[in-house]
Amino acid sequence: MARYPGLTLQRNTYIARIVVPADVRRIIGKRELIQSLQTGDYKEAVKRWGPVHKAFKEQIARARAKGEAPKLDTQAASNALTKWGMMVMREPVDLVEPETETPWLVARQIAAYDRASQDPDAWHLIPNFDEMAAYMLTKGGLRTRVGDPIIAAMRGEIATYLAYAARHVERQRLVMARESFTEAAKLANLDDVGVMPERPSQPLPAPSMTLQKLHDEWMGAINVSEKERGRLDHQIRRLIEFVGDIPANHLSKDQIRDFMATVARIPRRRSARLHVLPIRKMIETFERENSRLPEVERIGTLTATTVREWYGAYRRMYDYAVAMGRLDDNPFEKLKSKFVVKGAESVKRRAYTPAEITAIFTKPMFQGFDGDGKAGYRHKPGTTLVRDAKYWLPILALFHGGRLSEMAAARLELFRCVKDEANDNIWFFDLTTLIRVKNDGSKRIVPLHPHMIELGWLDYVQARREAGDRWLFPELNHDSKYGAGHEFSKWWGNWCDKNGFPDRTITHHSWRHTWKRRARQSPVKEEMHDVLSGHKGTTVSRGYGEGADIEPLARDMALITFPEFPALPIRAEVKGCDLRAGD
Predict the structure, then answer these.
(1) How many domains does the chain have?
(2) What is the pLDDT averaged over residues 103-128?
(3) For labeling, which of 167, 514, 524, 559 is most exposed (least CB within 10 Å)?
(4) CA–CA distance from 511 to each of 192, 336, 470, 537 (Å)?
(5) H/E run at residue 8
């Protein structure tokens, strides 16, 4: 477990966070408690973390103290439910309505139990829920009557046990049906009820914590970035959509295989409309709509590499559960990923060709478009020019080879100017203070390419400083857990589609490949353009110490040219180191 649980670096500032236990979420009104520690220094953050973490714990304790049942013995209730579950294994009972005679209705009833295990208010949809709950607890050894507060406190867990027992009972029923009525067994909806075994299956173990509870506990114990936390939250959401919020120790190898095969069908790029759909509905809709597109415009599915990352995340969560004694074993460890993980072949990104460079920068967005540029893709010719992030980021990437995450998140103060020995100006991006970087080589000095001055970049920076902005591109979402360039990256892909560049082998990252290829063709030595681009060297000598002096870097940057870059309708005004700040 992490030494300082919940201590997380977010946007260069440490925050403290804690997952609110399920039994007090309705009282506190939040799933998480989060507070900024107002510092980017780790040692100082550790000092401030202690009192904040203690305050969180006290808030949770106060919520429990004023809850509906402050003295309820939930542990005794959990033990009673476990005992009842074991009884069901020995003597199955009916947990569906008397008129439930078809597999579809059985699946619907089980789905109702699953929903009630996740939504505190969904128990209203289950007839006689409290009566069943009182019966289960009493049979398990905890005498309970309808209306007792313990039922309200345990409804989610009770619903989980109901779903677990109903699935077990239905499996037994299917086995009997197959032995006597083979055709009737074929009607079963195996996706919802479970795969029918050839012979009666072994009893499932008593339920552990559910998948969602295990995920929440794991998230509270590990220290990951906001971007990674969002990715892991999305992955557990998809797993629960597929199998339900079942006890973590009931996830079978067959379910894992089926789910990973489904993950491999997820679209690589998804609209917001598709993203909110449950996984099966999302894939069904995507495949139907994608099949109607011309082949060159069709969107691919997740690559095998990405699917393997999903698989690894689930395996790590289960590793944690085993290490903490929550589970006895890890079903993901028992499966060999090479037989489970499938996916599309990774698309190899390529550089832009000289013809594509010319074509892109003669499009209306760079030469003049129709409209105000606040919406759409600036693809219709006109007279408007908006020199914002959408305009500058592709140009910066072409002439400097920088990563989108670096340039999109740059603060104004990182763009500076110094004088060389001849008293000439050297403008540069100071990326040595970046915290979220890909590797140590990413912390570097990047001289401004001289062609950027001709394009009016200094005028743009001057305007940002006069406006009092903090960022080079203030219109981007700098609070996004995925980084300031995340939304622009998707926008650029759509812009390419609108402007006649549907090739999936070129993305915004292709500008970096383009710059690197041109650097290799230039007189610049490899170790120098490695320093400029922030590529980590493969030998100590290529590490170049702590970098290189700015003057030789600036000279080498000017040697990497793009003669196919067309003229843009702009005139530069600022010439020297006379910006009002940053020099």
Answers:
(1) 3
(2) 68
(3) 559
(4) 47, 37, 26, 20
(5) strand 7-10
**C-alpha closest to that of 169 among 99, 95, 109:** 95
Alpha-carbon 413 to chain mean position: 30
In the prediction, which pLDDT does 1 show? 40
- Rounded (to 5) percent helix, strand, coil in the chain: 50, 5, 40
Judge if 12 and 80 occupy the same domain.
no
Q: Cβ(413)–Cβ(582) under 8 Å? A: yes
Helix residue ranges, H only, 264-411:
272-275, 279-291, 304-323, 331-334, 337-340, 354-360, 364-367, 389-400, 404-408
- Report if pTM > 0.85: no
CA distance 504 to 300: 9
Out of 128, 159, 193, pick the residue that ends a domain. 193
Name every residue whose Cβ is closer than 8 Å to that of residue 583 and which is 6 or more positions away in sequence: 416, 417, 418, 577
Distance of CA 360 to the CA centre of its chain: 31
Q: What is the pLDDT of residue 362?
A: 95
Q: How far is CA 227 from CA 3, 7, 150, 169, in A?
A: 21, 15, 38, 41
| Torsion sign, CA atoms 373, 377, 383, 386 | positive
**DSSP single-letter state for residue 576:** S
Q: Both tokens of residue 383?
A: 């007279």
Name which of 261, 266, 269 is nearest 281 in CA terms.
266
For residue 489, tell me if it sits in a domain: yes
Query: What is residue 582's predicted lDDT score, i.e. its pLDDT?
Result: 42
At 80, list the tokens: 């009673």
Query: Do 425 and 502 belong to one domain?
Result: yes
Confidence tier at 390 by pLDDT (50, 70, 90): very high
pLDDT tens-digit profile of 204-225?
Answer: 667 788 899 999 999 988 888 7
Chain segment 494-531, per-residue pLDDT in tens: 899 889 888 878 889 999 999 999 999 999 998 888 88
C-alpha to C-alpha distance for 223 and 220, rounded to whole angstroms: 8
- Structural domain including 52 reads 1-25+32-62
468-478 mean pLDDT: 91
| Cβ neighbours of 564 (radius 10 Å) | 14
The pLDDT score that the predictor gives to residue 456 is 93
For residue 41, tell me if it sits in a domain. yes
CB pairs under 8 A, 24+ apart, for 196-199?
A: 196/171, 197/171, 199/175
- How would residue 156 be classed by pLDDT, with cut points 50, 70 and 90? confident
Stated as kind and residue range, the H or E segment containing 10 is strand 7-10
**Domain shared by 416 and 459, yes or no:** yes
Sign of CA dihedral 532, 549, 393, 408: positive
Rg (CA), the chain: 30
Q: Which two tokens stand for residue 425?
A: 């100006």
